[in-house]
From TrEMBL:
Record GO terms (molecular function): 6-phosphofructokinase activity; AMP binding; ATP binding; fructose-6-phosphate binding; identical protein binding; metal ion binding; monosaccharide binding
Domain spans labelled Phosphofructokinase: 7-283
Keywords associated with the record: Allosteric enzyme, ATP-binding, Cytoplasm, Glycolysis, Kinase, Magnesium, Metal-binding, Nucleotide-binding, Transferase
GO cellular component labels: 6-phosphofructokinase complex
Residues where Mg(2+) binds: 107
Binding of ADP, residues: 25-29, 159, 190-192, 218-220
Quaternary organization: Homotetramer.
Active site (UniProt): 132
PROSITE patterns named in the record: PHOSPHOFRUCTOKINASE (PS00433)
UniProt name for this protein: ATP-dependent 6-phosphofructokinase
Upper lineage: Bacteria, Pseudomonadati, Bacteroidota, Sphingobacteriia, Sphingobacteriales
Highest rank taxon of the organism: Bacteria
Originating species: Anseongella ginsenosidimutans
Binding positions for substrate per the UniProt entry: 130-132, 167, 174-176, 227, 251, 257-260
Length: 327
């Protein structure tokens, strides 16, 4: 039987990502356009459990499309992993008269959504908002492009000082389980090497590559390291390289959370707007239990259970391009 949707709740969960606000705006404005009452849930699933709801009229989302972070705040909520926590959340949702939920976040967010929608038969649509771009079922996640742009701006600036001093810089970027930011920003920043969790780091070949570069008159070198790189991370690798190859003065820069902030790029704003619009339309068409994605520049739905079961496939061609262009 078709469920009638009159009131939709929206929340952001997990790590914030630039473009989440643009997405909230799109969800709210689309809902209102179709005469749906829109409600915000504060602090992700924690707000569902703690009964923190706010009305979202159209003006509540004015002047946020350009802002990083999330006006709804976000959290990684342990209590929602328990049955008791989810029961509380469901009771609050019912008391609010909310018929469906739109959750914006990463795989942790979707795991919670998948269980919750199954247990309590609540229609849920997931929107991928994470800088990591590691979700199965979408070519891009909201925030990835902005994070990459922040990283390459930092790399460009580091390159200036690296070249002036003949230095070797190890730049650590985010990505606990995935090296997608490292790969993209490494290529765009013209890095000499990219070290990521998906590939084993071979110190020997890294050193020979750096040595070759030095012989070929490279005055500086930049190695981009994903934080999830498996042989010990940027600091440890830099130590090891420094011990065995002293041509350059070696430095480490950990970019950290600056990658998560900032005004979203045009690409992220448009992606967020498309996904937010499509998520509301999906619920109105009785589509549920799915993550929206963008595949080949078209909106595409993937079962939440499938989206959380694997990561996006690793792009071997990009890795090859990075290796070829960094000689
Ligand atoms: O998932 C997004 C992300 O920024 C990862 O790249 C990073 O490993 C993690 O979140 C950091 O999480 P937190 O902000 O909780 O330290």
């Amino acid at each position: 039987m078709e469920k009638s949707i009159n009131k939709i709740g929206v929340l952001t969960s997990g790590g914030d990502a630039p473009g989440m606000n643009a997405c909230i705006r799109a969800v709210v404005r689309t809902g209102i356009y179709y005469n749906i009452e829109m409600v915000g849930v504060m602090k992700g699933y924690q707000g569902l459990i703690d009964n923190e709801f706010i009305p979202l009229p159209s003006h509540a989302v004015s002047n946020i499309i350009q802002r990083g972070g999330t006006i709804l705040k976000t959290a990684r909520c342990m209590e929602f992993k328990t049955k008791e926590g989810r029961e509380k959340a469901f009771r609050n949702l019912q008391a609010q008269g909310i018929d469906a939920l739109i959750v914006i976040g990463g795989d942790g967010t979707f795991s919670g959504a998948e269980v919750f929608s199954r247990e309590f038969n609540v229609p849920v649509i997931g929107i991928p908002g994470t800088i990591d771009n590691d979700l199965f079922g979408t070519d891009f996640t909201i925030g990835f492009d902005t994070a990459n742009n922040s990283v390459i701006q930092a790399i460009d600036q580091i390159r200036d000082t690296a070249a002036s001093h003949n230095r070797l810089f190890f730049v650590e970027v985010m990505g606990r389980d995935a090296g997608v930011i490292a790969l993209w920003a490494g290529i765009a920043g013209g890095s000499e090497a990219i070290l990521i969790p998906e590939k084993e780091t071979a110190i020997e070949s890294l050193i020979s590559k750096l040595a070759e570069g030095a012989e070929n008159q490279k005055s500086s070198s930049i190695v981009v390291v994903a934080e999830g790189e498996k042989s010990g991370g940027a600091l440890k690798i830099a130590e090891e390289v420094k011990r065995r190859f002293d041509h350059y003065d070696t430095k480490v820069t950990v970019l950290g959370h600056l990658q998560r902030g900032g005004s979203p790029t045009c690409f992220d704003r448009v992606l967020a707007s498309r996904m937010g619009y499509a998520a509301v339309k999906a619920l109105l068409n009785n589509v549920e239990g799915k993550m929206i994605g963008m595949v080949n520049n078209r909106m595409h739905f993937t079962e939440l259970s499938l989206a959380i079961s694997r990561h996006s496939p690793f792009d071997e061609e990009l890795a090859e391009i990075a290796a070829v262009l960094s000689i």
